[in-house]
Write a structure and sequence with these properties.
Elements: H1 2-15, H2 17-33, E1 36-39, H3 40-53, H4 74-78, H5 80-83, H6 88-109, H7 114-132, H8 138-153, H9 157-171, H10 187-203, H11 206-209, H12 211-231, H13 242-255, H14 257-264, H15 275-278, H16 283-294, H17 306-322, H18 332-344, H19 352-366, H20 375-382, H21 390-405
Helix pairs in contact: 2-6, 2-7, 6-7, 6-8, 7-18, 8-9, 8-17, 8-18, 9-10, 13-14, 17-18, 17-21, 18-19, 18-21, 19-21
């Protein structure tokens, strides 16, 4: 009896909302106290507001920080409350707190069962720390994609469209929420709200910064994104994706390992004559991958099942990274959320293979940037060849196969 009580007590402790919330807030505190790469990203974000106020380009480096901003003009307005905080540490803490609370709220608002939410919080907490350690907006992107599906599931086309449009106008990734169009109860109404919110959110910064200025910044943003895609091809901190893994392995095999390490370490420029750099096109991989990912959508009879819809959500959350040259270490909070949903939200018991895949993903995808892995392994194996994306890619392949062959009817609809 005592043993049973201990088991119950232990389980109640680990699933208690205050335990979970404390864990989540601990990630916020640690991310500020042990900030992995100083506050440069926050400074980039902060100055998108001040540069907009000064009518300067928000996509150029004006000497306030390293690197440049790649988020849309509306992001300048989002950063306003944090940019005006006079103390840098206080501003960073409030930014991290807002991101953490936003994702927490999104998970709690979701249509998942309570035990599934508990599991997802535990499975994604460390990856959220990775993202917050870089002050990255990716935490909010994950939340908005989740909220866009939740709103559609609950029949709120207005809010579904809002989260999709806002996510798209900030970082483009939010556009994957359009995949949930097929689950909307009133598709014409959903499209109408997409149009309405696009107009509202595009225009929203104009009263604050000026119509001509904002319009010019949208044009510059599109140009900036095109240039960034080319820069990411063999980047040391970008293109951590299936696309990057294939290209980087191919380049290393043909140019030589030492030559590739020099390029990866920014000690040399890429060989522009190398086939994997100059001729290989990501579209040769993207098009088949998207076609494969679209196969489950042909099973229209499964649309009515909540579990099937959740797998569609998991699928697009994974695709955000594995098919993006802009994928980076901190953006995997999005895909890790997808992996967690994949594991817990099916109407059957997961196999030992699935357990192994989940552990493999947690270890290689989530823990590989940490000191739990030897420095040489991180710097010469995992990072150069984008291996952080490998477990998510394998799970994505298995997920699509499951969605094409499994029956999701056993789950109780909500």
């Amino acid at each position: 009896m005592m043993k049973k009580l201990k088991e119950i007590f232990a389980w109640q402790f680990w699933r208690n909302k205050w335990t979970l919330f404390s864990l989540w807030m601990l990630m916020v505190v640690i991310s500020v106290a042990l900030h992995m790469h100083n506050f440069n990203n926050f400074l980039i974000y902060k100055y998108t507001f001040w540069h907009a106020v000064e009518q300067k380009s928000i996509f150029l480096n004006h000497g306030d920080h390293f690197d440049v901003n790649h988020y849309g003009p509306i992001f300048s307005l989002i950063m306003a409350p944090f940019a005006v905080v006079p103390n840098l540490w206080a501003g960073v803490f409030l930014w991290h707190l807002a991101l953490g609370l936003f994702l927490w709220w999104a998970i709690r608002q979701s249509t998942l069962e309570t035990w599934q939410k508990v599991a997802i919080i535990w499975l994604t907490a460390h990856e959220m720390l990775n993202a917050l350690g870089m002050s990255q907006f990716n935490v909010a992107t994950a939340a908005m994609i989740l909220l866009s599906y939740t709103a559609i599931r609950k029949g709120s086309d207005l809010w579904a469209a809002f989260w999709i449009v806002l996510g798209t106008l900030v970082k483009v990734y939010g556009i994957v929420g359009l995949a949930f169009f097929f689950f909307a109860k009133s598709k014409p109404k959903f499209v109408m709200w997409l149009v309405v919110w696009t107009v509202v959110l595009v225009v929203l910064p104009m009263p604050f910064f000026g119509a001509d200025y904002v319009a010019g910044q949208y044009v510059e943003w599109i140009r900036c994104l095109g240039e960034k895609s080319q820069e990411n091809l063999l980047s040391d901190f970008q293109n951590i994706s299936l696309l990057g893994m294939v290209r980087k392995v191919g380049y290393a095999c043909t140019a030589g390992l030492s030559a590739y390490y020099e390029v990866f370490g920014r000690e040399a420029q890429p060989d522009v004559t190398n086939w994997w750099y100059s001729t290989w096109k990501d579209l040769w991989l993207i098009i088949p991958a998207l076609a494969y990912s679209a196969l489950p959508w042909l099973r229209t009879g499964q649309y009515r099942h909540h579990a099937f819809q959740l797998m569609c959500l998991a699928l697009v959350l994974m695709l955000v990274n594995i098919l993006s040259t802009g994928a980076e270490n901190s953006s995997y909070i999005i895909s890790m959320l997808g992996v967690a949903i994949w594991y817990v939200a099916v109407p059957w018991k997961r196999s030992r293979l699935d357990v192994c895949l989940l552990v493999f993903c947690f270890v290689l995808t989530s823990l590989s940037p940490t000191d739990l892995f030897p420095a040489d392994v991180r710097y010469y194996v995992i990072r150069p060849f984008a291996l952080k994306s490998l477990p998510v890619t394998i799970i994505w392949l298995k997920l699509v196969w499951e969605m094409c062959t499994k029956d999701y009817e056993l789950v109780t609809s909500k």
